[in-house]
Amino acid sequence: LIEQPVAKTFHLGMFDIGKPLGKGKFGRVYLAREREQGFVCALKVLYKKELLQGRVEKQLRRETEIQSNLRHPNILNLYGYFHDSKRVVLILEYAGQGELYRHLRKENRFSESKAAKYTAQMASALRYLHRKHVIHRDIKPENILVGTYGNIKLSDFGWSVHAPSQRRTTYCGTLDYLPPEMIVPRTPGNSYDEKVDLWALGVLIYEFLVGEAPFEDTPVATTRRIARGDMNIPSFVSAEAADLIKKLLVVDPQKRLSLDEVEQHPWVVKHCRKSEIISTCKKS
Ligand SMILES: Clc1ccc(CN2CCN(c3c(Br)cnc4[nH]c(-c5ccc(CN6CCOCC6)cc5)nc34)CC2)cc1
Dihedral of the CA atoms 216, 219, 224, 230 (nearest 10)? Predict the structure, then answer.
């Protein structure tokens, strides 16, 4: 868009469209520049036909309602949205370093200090969300982007809800990040609360440090291992990091660490010294 000549410059009203950033089931995301002020953004273009067929228009409505009211350095900003007869277009913040899971696959696993920095930023984003009684419910590397300055941006609020909640739509993604209470409903009517995001944070930290999810297995075995919290942490993971993971991957939701305790955990504090917290650990 800026440097490389765009093969064909077609615009969507007030935007110049640049390179495609990726394809999804229901549409595509493009790099774009707004014409008046010239600010760069990402346009998520969704096709109404596919949305109706996929019966995901309700999730899209939730994604736009929830995300457009959020403002946090570690949450991808949704500036607005518009639609024409065929498409719905979300105007999203452009994350300069792309999708976190590509970085994780490329590096195989992150260093303890990088993983701790991302953990502090995730805890900060989740504290902000939970204060607004929003549960993300779909935390995984695929839904996290990396901003221009290397800070993470939580995105994709298609599965977020207001707490407490009872799941109605069938989940058709990976089981790896689902907590026991969403797999084996203990409580009648299987309601659950923000603690599902704390479980997912534990799975995320494990995956940052080990390079694969803790309960990764066949679907049946994964379900059984999640229900029992049956995982083992390789010995190359430091004792402090292992301690934090074990205190998040607790079957009983009420016994999981709180976000404050995550931010104050020795492993996080050690890698995010006060000075750094101002510049990198929390700010974008
Ligand atoms: Cl409908 C739909 C379509 C595609 C997708 C998958 N991605 C979701 C996230 N998308 C991005 C969004 Br939203 C906001 N900012 C972004 N920035 C980027 C991005 C930025 C930079 C790159 C280039 N790489 C960066 C890492 O080093 C190698 C080069 C690649 C992607 N992708 C997005 C890209 C597409 C999800 C839903």
Answer: 0
CA–CA dist 269, 175 (Å, integer): 30
Residue 92 near ligand 1, beta carbon < 6 Å: yes
State how far the Cα of 268 lies from the Cα of 271, in Å rounded to an integer.
Answer: 6
Q: Is 185 touching ligand 1 by the criterion CB < 6 Å?
A: no
Per-residue pLDDT reduced to its tens digit, 105-148: 999 999 999 999 999 999 999 999 999 999 988 999 999 999 99
Query: What's phi and psi for 180, nearest 5 deg?
Result: -55, -40
Complex confidence, ipTM: 0.97
Residue with CA closest to ligand 1 atom 19: 98
Residue 187 CA to its chain's centroid (Å): 27
> Among 25, 33, 31, which residue's Cα sits nearest to residue 158?
25
Q: Is 30 in the pocket of ligand 1 (CB under 6 A)?
A: no
